[in-house]
Q: What sequence folds into this?
């Protein structure tokens, strides 16, 4: 029997999230949840996968999947093409929201805040640890631009390979990191009968507050 969309549902029963478990700031809890996800998520799920939402100058939202590549007290870092659609949106409207979903843990984390570029030195340091193919790809692909066909991309890659025949590719000027400076972090733990736990951290004047939201 084919399951209809209306019939698709699963109860979430694995865990709870209480105020007693939650620290005064969100970063240590995020790190703990991330470490849990690294342990429990099975390939092909990558625990650092998230959805990043940005807005354009007409106020229209756009979202896409990206990989988180760094986290420290300054914020959440990801890498992309500065000339891409998201790059243009962030240049005009430097705010974003990212969502992580860890299905094995029945957990979601939502993070919102201002976005800034990381330094060129930080972008270069990360670029250099990427596999050669990814480094060449960053040079070859005019991300988010219309291309005629697959052959055009292959041609662009061939040109880049030719250019970097004798020297290792350095970080392109159009490619690098962004850091989301969190102003709001919400932790969501699935619970039975859709009565989930939600703890919402907000930053005001450098001080984090925490409240429980209704599911
Ligand atoms: C699992 C996964 C990981 C991805 N990681 C990245 C990434 O780290 N950086 C990136 O620029 N695009 C990444 N992409 C591609 C983006 O989803 C998107 O197609 C691309 O960044 C262009 O988006 P834009 O046109 O909105 O700028 C990833 C896609 C998937 C499915």
A:
């Amino acid at each position: 029997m084919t399951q209809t969309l209306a019939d698709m549902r699963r109860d979430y029963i694995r865990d709870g999230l209480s105020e007693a478990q939650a620290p005064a700031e969100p970063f240590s809890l995020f790190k703990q949840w991330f470490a849990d996800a690294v342990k429990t998520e099975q390939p092909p799920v990558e625990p650092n996968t998230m959805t990043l939402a940005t807005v354009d100058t007409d106020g229209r939202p756009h979202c896409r999947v990206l990989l988180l590549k760094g986290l420290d007290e300054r914020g959440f870092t990801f890498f992309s093409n500065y000339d891409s659609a998201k790059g243009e949106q962030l240049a005009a409207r430097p705010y974003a929201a990212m969502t992580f979903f860890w299905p094995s843990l029945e957990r979601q984390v939502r993070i919102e805040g201002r976005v800034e570029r990381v330094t060129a030195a930080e972008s270069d340091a990360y670029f250099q640890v990427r596999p050669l193919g990814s480094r060449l790809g960053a040079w070859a692909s005019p991300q988010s631009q219309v291309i005629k066909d697959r052959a055009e991309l292959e041609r662009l890659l061939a040109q880049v390979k030719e250019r970097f025949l004798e020297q290792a590719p350095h970080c392109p000027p159009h490619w690098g990191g962004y850091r989301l400076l969190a102003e709001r972090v919400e932790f969501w733990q699935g619970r039975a009968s859709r009565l989930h736990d939600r703890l919402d951290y907000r930053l005001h004047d450098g001080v984090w507050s925490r409240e429980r939201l209704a599911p």
